[in-house]
Amino acid sequence: MIKGFLITFLLSFLLILGCGENKQNPENQTENSESGDNKGDLENFAENMKNLSESFNEGKKVNPVDFRELKSLLPEQIGNLKRKNASGEKTSAMGINISKAEADYSDEQGNKSIDVEITDLGSVSGLTSFAAYGWYMADIDKETENGYERTFMYKGNKGYEKYNNDSQDGEISVLVAKRFVAEIRGSNVSMDELKAALDMIDIGKLEGMKDFGVEK
């Protein structure tokens, strides 16, 4: 989900940047000058991305929490589902810095599974409520014969849940301190099991790290 948002955001910014350049450059610009400016355009784009990410964070640079810290918040076991693997990574590109940790859980037969992901949106944290998670700016309460989706409050933070009764697949996302995202996705499990997984994440510890790495 995070990677998809970043790709969409970058493409949108490229479109905006391209429109701005078309307005500034005369129509009779020569082919040679266009090729000569390619490198400069890329450098300007990277700088603009950096400036844009900082502007959404009130001029502050944000270095994400070490993914190892996030990884330590992943539970060892969820009910009778054992953790099969856990991983983490930090990604940096064009002034955008994020880190995340994730783990997979399943029963011995492999019939039921839950995935848990904790992400520090770092330098793009100021964008999340407007772009990455549209539900953050809305109140959703929808129900069909097959399932439902709704927004809710969880320990003072806004969240979103969706569940399909037929397939018994569901997901929960909570945006913590407008910076961290806790995401739970499950297959062949109940919503109660997904909520139990969410309860095992130390939300208070995440909130306590909201100012980590913030440079004024």
How does this model look, in words?
- With 216 residues, the protein is α+β, with helices and mostly antiparallel strands.
- It is 33% helix and 34% strand.
- It contains 7 helices and 11 strands.
- The chain has helices spanning 2-24, 31-36, 38-55, 67-71, 128-132, 191-199, 203-208; strands spanning 61-62, 77-78, 81-93, 96-106, 113-120, 141-143, 147-154, 157-164, 169-176, 180-187, 214-215.
- The strands form 2 sheets. A 9-stranded antiparallel beta sheet has the order 2-3-4-5-10-9-8-7-6.
- The longest helix has 23 residues, at 2-24.
- The protein is globular, with a radius of gyration of 20 Å.
- Mean pLDDT is 79; it is low at 5-26 and 52-56.
Number of helices: 7
Low-confidence stretches are 5-26, 52-56
Backbone CA Rg? 20 Å
Overall, the morphology is: globular
Q: How many β-strand stretches?
A: 11
Distance between termini?
A: 29 Å
The description of the largest β-sheet is: 9 strands, antiparallel
Tell me roughly what share of residues is in helical segments.
Answer: 25-40%
Strand order across the biggest sheet?
2-3-4-5-10-9-8-7-6
Oligomer: single chain
Order of helices and strands: HHHEHEEEEHEEEEEHHE
Average pLDDT, to the nearest integer?
79
Q: What proportion strand?
A: 25-35%
Which structural category do the helix and sheet elements fall into? alpha+beta
